[in-house]
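It is worth pausing here to work through a concrete case rather than discussing structure prediction in the abstract. The textbook approach is simple: state the sequence, then state the predicted structure, then interpret. We follow exactly that order.
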Amino acid sequence: QVQLVQSGGGLVQPGGSLRLSCAASGSIFSINTMAWYRQAPGKQRELVAAISIGGSTDYADSVKGRFTISGDRAKHTWDLHMNSLKPEDTAVYYCNTQAVSDHDIRYQYDYWGQGTQVTVSS
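Step two, the predicted structure:
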């Protein structure tokens, strides 16, 4: 019963900025990690940015210095702020969490948002 709903995305010119948001709802016991992934056509899915259970952040080398992940674990929300966007950032972006549901607190599961298209083009 844990559901992730994401918003944002769209078409933006190179050098532009965009913000993606994710909100988890349902029977949530705890949000352990908060992350963003992306997948471009013909490419493997890659981790873009993540916040660990301890609060540390991790970024893909390709986005370091340009993207920022932020989140509120208690509110079950997290954002990805994307700046200085490049055409190679074009992909479907997915929010992700490793979380524990109230219905089974013995285990941690991965949950995914529906995905949103980000297109960087002039």
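Step three, interpretation. Residues 38 and 93 are 4 Å apart (CA to CA). DSSP finds no helices and eleven strands in the chain.
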